[in-house]
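Minutes, project check-in
Item: structure for the 134-residue chain
Input as provided by the requester:
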Amino acid sequence: MTASLLSPDTIDHGTTRGYSQHRKRGVPYCQPCRDAVNAQVKARAAGRAGASAAQQAWNRGAVGEPSVPTLVPTGRSCGAAGCGDLASAPQPAARMLKVSWPESREPARWYCPGACQAYGLALAEVRALKDRCA
């Protein structure tokens, strides 16, 4: 007489495969199979270096200490002549961009292209919000 493939005697005990066989057959897990799965889970967690799946996706797998971002002078701290000046004045330099937003409490201003322009747009957009005191 041959043993049935579904009997508990045919389970590969002490392996993750054995753990799956316990689960699929509805047989209570043995300690060696639990230990095998726990070891696999710990190995995967160590490979991620503590980052969650969402963090891994966000960082494209990068782990460790982040680098310190470079400070970029924007708006009032920009050293360029005319950056942040009111747009009622003539354009200070050929590369300066006029930033304004409809219904904003922030007046139109001249900004450098790039970070300063983004700062000006954000400031004007926030000050266009009706329900906030920005």
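Outcome recorded: The mean pLDDT is 81.
No further action items on this chain.
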